[in-house]
Each structure stands twice: as structure tokens, then as C-alpha cells.
Amino acid sequence: CFHCCCTRCDPRRRFTHSAGTTCWGIMALKPRLNRKKNRKYVEIGRVVFIRFGKFRGTLAVITDVIDQNWILIDGRAFKRGAPRQTFNIKDIALTHLKVKMGHNVRHRTLKEKVAKADVQAEWDKTTQAQKVATQKAKKNSTDLERWRIMYNRRQRSWLIKAKYGKLKKKALQTAKRKFGPKNPVPYKDRKHPEKKDGKKRSAKCSGFEKRMRKQQKIDYKAIAAGAKDYVAKI
């Protein structure tokens, strides 16, 4: 019964009522209904990924279904694709991509439909394609490239640890200041060092700073005497 609200129904197991009807529980039906949206069927136009054989690692399109174990595929629309031939279902992996096409279309028509649907670009965005590309690049890499990868990984790890150490130290200091034990002596009763009134300027200064200091000095006696030369210099 789909509308059962009985507390005896187990959503994970089938339960038989006293009346003899079988109840699967409402909670058990929801995941079953949601799974149908993401199902992949062996059908005409389905893009597949070849896992084994001479053309492994390439894409192809199902053009015909022979029986429950064998299909007819065509991968010439893709780079290094397999020619039209029969393939076992166990040697392929179904993808979420599909091309709208008829039964056993010609190569030219199939190539146009694949280009129009932009299948290759959609496949390159998937995580599975990125994983395959990474494995291929790792397999074809040289000894120097592998060493560079190892060196960069170590450098990245060192930078992460250094940044993490700084953040951890700062967080501990903040936590100690906010939630740590307080000083029992009041602030007024603590011994504070005497603060000096004036700060000594640094003895070391550049030539530009010396010139600016000379220009900023004002001769008050000359201003009081009304010296015209001083006003002209300013």
C-alpha cells in the first residue's frame, strides 16, 4: 500500500500486514523513484566509453542493439575512434550523454549529429574524462617531469604547513587572551614603566631628509626683523 502511515512499517524491509497486503513504506519508495531519473540505458544513440581492447579510452555511439550481450558501435566521429563493429556490453561503460538519431545511420549523418550536440566538449567537462586524461599524462611523462611534480608537491606541502602554523599560533593567542586566566592584580595597581615625553629621532637619515629638515626650519628672528631675503627664498 502506497498510503500506509502505520508505525509498524519498516522503510528498509518489506512488511506484510495482518490483512495480507504488502507494504514497502513511504520512505522506501522515494529513493526508488529518484533513481529512475539518473538511469542509463543501452539504447540507440547512447555515447559509450570503451574500457578494453584496441580502442580503449575512446568514445563511441551505439548504432544498433543486437541482443542482451552484444551491440553495434561506431566511433569514427571521435578522435582515434573505433570503426563500426560489434562490441560486448561488458567491455564498455555507459555515459550520461546521448545523441538523438535513427536506427543504424550512416557515418556522415552520425558525424554531423555528434558535432551538433558537441559531445566531445561535454565529455571533457566530466570528472571521469579528467581522471582518464590525468592517468594518460602520468603514464607518458618523463623522469624529469615526474621529479618536477614531486618537488612542487613538497613545496606546496611546506607552504601549507607554514601558513597553518601561523594561523594556529594566532588562534591560540586570541583564545588565551579571551578565555585564558586573567591577571588577579588590578590594572591600576600594576607597575607600569615610565613613558618618556619625547622620542629621539633616528640619527641615520638620508640626504633628502636632511634637505627637507633644513627647508622646514623657520628663522623667527628674520621674520620679526622683516627680512625680505628670507621671504624671497620661501
Kindly describe this structure.
The protein is of the alpha+beta class and 234 residues long. It contains eight helices and seven strands, in the order ββαβββββααααααα. The protein has helices at residues 26-35, 107-117, 119-124, 127-139, 143-179, 207-216, 220-225, 228-233, and strands spanning 15-16, 22-23, 46-50, 59-65, 70-74, 85-88, 92-98. The strands form two sheets. Strands 6-5-4-3-7 form a five-stranded antiparallel beta sheet. Strands 1-2 form a two-stranded antiparallel sheet. A hairpin with a 5-residue loop joins strand 1 and strand 2 (22-23). It is elongated. The chain starts with 14 loop residues before the first strand and ends with a helix. Residues 1-30 have low confidence and may be disordered.
Low-confidence stretches: 1-30
Q: What proportion of the residues is helical, as a percent range?
A: 40-55%
Reported for the largest beta sheet, the result is: 5 strands, antiparallel
Task: Give the termini distance in whole angstroms.
Answer: 101 Å
Give Rg in angstroms: 40 Å
Number of strands: 7
Q: N-to-C SSE series?
A: EEHEEEEEHHHHHHH
Beta-strand residue fraction: 5-15%
Mean of residue pLDDT values: 78
Structural class: alpha+beta
What shape does the CA trace take?
Answer: elongated
Question: Major sheet: order of its strands?
Answer: 6-5-4-3-7
Give the count of helical stretches.
8
In short:
With 234 residues, this protein is of the alpha+beta class.
